[in-house]
């Protein structure tokens, strides 16, 4: 077993860390105020390979794989979980197109996404409930050579910043009745609706997509007609959960750093508070959670790179890391005493960001449903 990252992965980490500290930090105040994604970061992020990290090389991507992507997202999220969130969903759109697109579709849509010319999104959730994918109401009907889509998607990351939407809709009833489509934002009848104002991950754009007799050509079907559930499950499980986990991991790393710095700097009774046993125990817990989460996140992405099945591991990494980031952010605030609740201290933002990662990309309960199933399977009595 080898826990050492390659020299290339370490270099990638360093270059993304330097970039995030220098270029993303100055944008945070505006992101917190407006909630808007800083689109001017797309080009410099593309230069570093962040936008196209998992896009195949033949379509202008970097093709470095999922472990490299986790490292990149972790470093971006260490500075801004909101920017990491935008990128992780952008990667989900790239993954869906790479996995299920035809050669024509890949040639058309992957290069502009990989090069950061625009963003992509994946629209599954509807007001009828995100966990109940089969309960979605959006419908698609083929009329001649055109698909007509009707419905409303909500809580969609990059809803207003994406030129290309991967949209799930019903073409029939039941699990074989879901179908995925590529909807360009300027397709007739396609409209980005309201923007959500979140208390955390401010700066990642979240909103509605409205499909009102939206027309897309027959060729914009992604995968097979009736194969939409497979598109949703693979995309959410592989790129979605690992991406959310990596976003929470970067937040957790930031919690650790803020807590450790404060515990060493704040002096009470003539000594840094880190020398108090209670504070050092908090630090031990945060430090251990960080290690557990990093191992879970790296293992899941490494398994993807090895072409191993990893749905249980990605669900474990996602639900555990998002929860741990919120727990540790709370502890980091407690270590700060009253300072922790002040706007100018980063820890309050880390708690808000960590909380928002919990339901995004599938709730903690749904993650546990997946892991619970795997935990019970080996001892299940045969009927
Ligand atoms: C910041 C953010 C970004 C998002 N980005 C996207 C995106 O880009 N694309 C997209 O399609 N969606 C996106 N979502 C939506 C997200 O995937 C859903 O919020 C999530 O799937 C849960 O759906 P829901 O909010 O409708 O909750 P519901 O499904 O209504 O769930 C409500 C509660 O019931 C629990 N529950 C539901 N089913 C079960 C079960 N079987 N067992 C136990 N408990 C259960 C849930 O865990 C939750 O606690 C985003 C959400 C957020 C917050």
What order do the helices and strands come in, and which of them pair?
Elements: H1 7-24, H2 28-34, H3 42-48, H4 66-79, H5 81-100, H6 103-114, E1 119-123, E2 139-143, E3 146-157, E4 162-170, E5 178-184, E6 190-195, E7 206-217, E8 221-222, H7 228-265, E9 267-268, E10 271-272, H8 277-305, H9 311-335, H10 346-359, H11 364-376
Bound molecules: flavin-adenine dinucleotide (FAD).
The site of flavin-adenine dinucleotide has 23 residues, from strand 1, strand 3, helix 10 and helix 11.
Characterization of the model:
About 50% of the residues lie in helices and about 15% in strands. By secondary structure, the protein is of the alpha+beta class. It folds into 3 domains: about 5-120, Acyl-CoA dehydrogenase/oxidase, N-terminal domain (Butyryl-Coa Dehydrogenase, subunit A, domain 1); about 120-230, Butyryl-CoA Dehydrogenase, subunit A, domain 2 (Beta Barrel); about 235-375, Butyryl-CoA Dehydrogenase, subunit A, domain 3. The strands form 3 sheets. A 4-stranded mixed β-sheet has the order 1-4-5-8. A 4-stranded antiparallel β-sheet has the order 2-3-7-6, covered by helices on one side. It has a two-stranded antiparallel ribbon with strand order 9-10. A hairpin with a 2-residue loop joins strand 9 and strand 10. The mean pLDDT is about 95. Bound molecules: flavin-adenine dinucleotide.
